[in-house]
Amino acid sequence: MTSRGWLGLLLVAVTGTLGAWILLVTLPDVYEENGDPVAALSVGEPVEPPKLTTATLFYVSDDGERLVGVERDIVEGNVPVEQARYVLEAQFLAVEPPLTSAVPENTVLRAFYLTDRGDAFVNVSREISSGHSGGSLNELLTTYTIVNAVTVNVPSVRAVQILIEGRETDTLAGHVDLRRPLTQREDWMDMAPAEPSAPTAP
Amino acid sequence: MQRAQLLLLLVLCTLVAVLHISDLSLQAQQSLTVLSEDGRYELAVVSVNDRQMVPLSDLAKTFALNVREDTLADGLTVTHRDRVVVLTATQGLASVDGRVVSLPSPPVRTSRGWQVPIEFLSRVLGLVIDTPIELRRRSGLVIVGNLHVPEIEVKYTVGRGQAQIAFEMARPAPYTIEEGPRHLFVKFDADALDVSLPRTSPDSLVASIQLGDEPTWLAIELGSEYASFQSSLLTGSGMSRLLVDVFSAAATAAIARANEPATATEGSVSLIDEGVTPLQELRTPVTVRTIMIDPGHGGDDHGVVGPNGILEKDVTLQVAQRLRRAIESRLGLRVAMTRDGDTMVRLDERAAIANNSKADLFISLHANASLRPEPSGAEVYYLSLARGGDEPRREGSRNRMVPLLGGGTRNIEVLSWEMAQVGHIDRSAMLAAIVNAELRRQVEVRAREAQRAPFRVLVGANMPAVLVELGFLSNPTQERQLTSTPFQEALAEGLFQSVVDFRARAEQRPTTTPGSNGAPREQP
User: Residue A36: which H helix or E strand, with range?
Assistant: First the structure.
């Protein structure tokens, strides 16, 4: 076969492959995405305002020794997992004085899982550890802010395990054992509602 | 153009050939040691496609196998007496008298003949020769027959005037210890040993730890300051631990003074004057002889940083050193520390060091922090487990029926390392209450009584254990106090009196001068 023949054969092969790819892969995706143009483009449909519920969030007491419960209106979730997400997102929001959050700034909720046994897994960003100021008391308050916020507001959650960036972790700052789910503790919790302040509901 | 195409084809062929060859690359590697009643010999291991394999021809010679290649079936037939094994070159399967056994890879033909994966030894060869074959990958041992080859991991820790050699065994192996002019010989009653030795550098007590003249002996070469040794055997937690402590002359004298009344009642057998071999006994820690102090944090882990830059890791170490001096000089007890410098020690290691040192008390020292500047005062914690109720106790210690060789079963108590603290909670609570009261005599202690918290460092401690927060570094006034000598001495004194008080209660000694909780008070 001459060189022109080789080139011709190569051209036919490339063109055939490209055509097949467009026909079998790309076009079905395009049709699928636009399969229901009416639904996709619905405009002006009335949007119902989200239903709110009252949740108890936890912040550091004035004397710095306990957690106090503060009631907040947050979006109501349809299922426990959704409810827990809304609670934690509200809990992680920055607060203004006089409230102080035991959760380090910039900590973000990555994911929330709940097992059939009622064990919840709260996956948070690394700032919860890297931004932690240390000390047993601080670490207990941070840990039980999360554990109590979930268990108090989502009754189907029995225990909470904190994960950092999706991984199990020993401790946040060298003290509290986070390798297993923790149950609610009232040792560092004062349930008397404090003055409401202004964290924004999600 | 045709030349270019030919050239391209040639390059491609070469590439494929190189890849294929490298895929089958054959590298000489270490050998396996085969132990049998006939003796010990080496079996060459080669690496084929990153998999450890042994030459089938070597096995054939050693175990009287007849190997026949079946080119039509693309496989091998291995026979031994009336047993027939069929191996195929395409699948990781072997048929032993019709019974199919899986292998991690099929046999591979190399320039040195047929190679089979090392798992062939335990999974197939044992069936063929009708003798159990155990493959121990870590040590590279192949044990043919019912030989007793205990796995022993040797650990070495050295302190001031004393050192400890721990022989950890999955199953107890009878032993004797003989003292020579320059060696201690630990002689195990076994067919061979599967030993993992520590890397040690010579010191004044122990020059080296190595295999002895006989294959079941271990030789501890003694250093110039060696004066005496003691040994004890701990069993439980699914393993046995033979501890050999060697002492300098000063440490020997101090221990003799401290433990004279209690030695005879302990499971630990003193060989110094007896000249007898040790007995296997279960040691019950009813006396307090070894205190483990754990200065929190260290190395890159600074812990809390005070408003004026004082680091928690420094404060905890300074107080720990003061406490050690007080206990050693005034009580003559053995004190070990999880760190004695600015080093990072993992939380797991801290409990392991305490357990391996057969410590009778574990005191972890920390400094606290709050997001508000006001909180101050010391606090004492002991362990609470993640889940409440009796579940941890049940999980921590379970009786299990295990089958015995030769038939029958035996009921054994299994204690999970993770739950080591569970069995000591009551004593830890007592220790925490004592520390709380004794510290309150010396320094400010927060209003709360001793508290429970799920602290990681306490979980694996197989002895009464507490975590003491010495004060709040986040409080500027306490930060200054925590670095001052008088305050640190006061903290050390409170902790020292706690040890005295706990020891008296644990040993049920009569109290002399009532102190806190009716305990005797030691004077500096």
Answer: none
- Which residues of chain B does CATH 2.60.40.3500 include? 151-283
- Residues A25 and A104 occupy one common structural domain: no
Q: CATH fold of B292-518, please?
A: Aminopeptidase (3.40.630)
Which residues of chain A does B456 touch, with a Cβ-Cβ cutoff of 8 Å?
170-171, 174-179
Domain count for chain A: 2
* Tens of pLDDT, residues B276-326: 222 222 233 458 889 999 999 999 999 999 999 999 999 999 999 999 999
Sign of the CA dihedral running B499, B495, B163, B238: positive
Q: Which tokens belong to B68?
A: 């026949």
Work out the number of other CB atoms within 10 angstroms of the CB of residue B118. 21
Contact (CB<8Å) A64/B303 = no
For testing the chain A interface, which of B7, B371, B372 should be mutated: the one with the most A CBs within 10 Å?
B371
* Token pair listed for B83: 């047993």
- Asked if the B26-144 domain carries CATH number 3.30.457.10, the reply is yes
Tokens representing residue B323 in the block: 């406490």
A137 → closest Cβ in B369, B373, B386: B369
ipTM: 0.72
Query: Is B467 part of the contact surface with chain A (CB cutoff 8 Å)?
Result: yes
Please, which contacts does B73-76 make with residues 24 or more away whose CB atoms are closer than 8 Å? B76/B107, B76/B114
Is B451 at the interface with chain A, CB within 8 A?
yes
pLDDT, tens only, B423-477: 788 889 889 999 999 999 899 988 777 888 999 999 989 999 999 999 999 999 9
- Which CATH code for domain B151-283? 2.60.40.3500
Residue A64: domain span: 52-190
Cross-chain Cβ contact A62/B372 below 8 Å = yes
Q: Is residue A202 part of a domain?
A: no
Q: Judge: B379–A135 Cβ closer than 8 Å, yes or no.
A: no
